[in-house]
Amino acid sequence: MRSDGTAVKQLFTRLVSSLGRETAIREFKWMKQTLIASHAPTLPAMLLRRLSGEPLQYILGTTPFGPLDLLTRPPTLIPRPETEDWTLRLADMLTPTPLRPLSVLDLCTGTGCIPLLLCHLWPPGSTRAHGVDISQDAIRLATDNAARCNIPSFQPSSLTPYSQNVFIPVLGDLRNSDVFKHLLPPFDVITANPPYIPKREYDELPLSVKNYEDPAALLGDPPDSEEQDGLTFYHLISRLLRQKGMLRDGSIVALEVGQAQADAVEGILQQSAGLRNTQVWKDPWNVKRVVLARA
Question: What is the mean pLDDT of residues 90-110?
Answer without folding.
Answer: 96
